[in-house]
Amino acid sequence: METVSQIDTEIFLWINDWVGTSLIFDRVIQWIVSDYLIPIIFSVVLLGLWFGWADQAMRERHQRGVMLGGASVGMANIMVKISNVFYFRHRPFDSIDVNLLFYPPTDSSFPANPIAITVAMATGVWMANRRIGTLMYIGSFVYGFSRVYSGVFYPLDVVGGALIGISAVCLLYIVFKRIEPVPTLCLRLVRFLCFA
Amino acid sequence: MTMEQEYLILVVLVCCGVVQVAASFGGLNGLLFIENRRFSTAFGMVMILGSLTWFFWNGGRNLPDTDGGIAGASQFAYFVLGGFLALLFTFVVTSLTNFRRATSGDTTDGLPSLKETTFWQALSHNLGIAWKLYRRLTRKYSSG
User: Fold this and answer.
1) What is the C-alpha separation between B53 and A137, in angstroms, rounded?
2) What pLDDT is attached to residue B58?
3) Closest approach of chain A CAs to the CA of B126, in angstroms?
4) Could you tell me which CATH number the domain at A36-96+105-192 has?
5) Looking at this predicted complex, what is its ipTM?
6) pTM across the whole model
7) Nearest-CA distance A53 → chain B (Å)
8) Among the four residues A15, A109, A167, B116, which has the most C-beta atoms within 10 Å?
9) A53–B25: do the CB atoms touch at under 8 Å?
């Protein structure tokens, strides 16, 4: 465990040491790392997928993916909160000298909550549309990298967050299957109201 | 203007833009502000990119929620509210502006009906069917 933590810290320091090398790159990272940019882009992708397909079968497939991804965001949040009750990891800037490009958050470093949320959305979409889901995974990876680069998460926190995001979707996928026809009835009700 | 108000405006504008782009790709003419699909796509893209540029013009807005930023739960609530307002605005405006263009024939349920009718026409048609069904099912229990 000690060795894993040491490797994690070394990878973190190697990535974070690049801060200041290129001011333009740092500026771009400060945009990407924002609490608002990637989450809002991912959320509107879900909204776009809900409406934007001419083929009815494909649209329904997307809508099920959006339902799964959206519900998984809540589940991932709950899983992160439960994890924080049992384990608290200090932020990198609490114990080592880092180049900070972001405000210093006070909650647990492990697992990375923003990554859990974006990966949950990406996985829900990936189950319905591989191409857009993969693009969202790439977006999540960039978001995770930016958080490490900015000095607010260790790489292992990001990996932990991603695993929680994927687990949340898998768990809800099983739940949705078990409680069928409830999700289908919900979708039909929303369709009756012309929202789906 | 507070950060919350700016965020809400951003969400409303971006969601309106996304609905325009998605509706033009999905052929949902009843949800378009502009009749021409290409113009609608361009209009939607301008709304999305313009509002994002406006909000992030001075950087990533990296502020803690204790110092003017928005907490995660509030962010979610504002997104839901903004999305709802954007959809409401789109449904009201397109129901009024597309009223003459729309056909008032029988519609299927759901979004596909918005290819030919407006949201209001489709919704009232479906609610009318539901009301007739309800009356038929409850007739034998009626005192009148």
Assistant:
1) 24
2) 81
3) 7
4) 1.20.144.10
5) 0.91
6) 0.93
7) 4
8) A109
9) yes
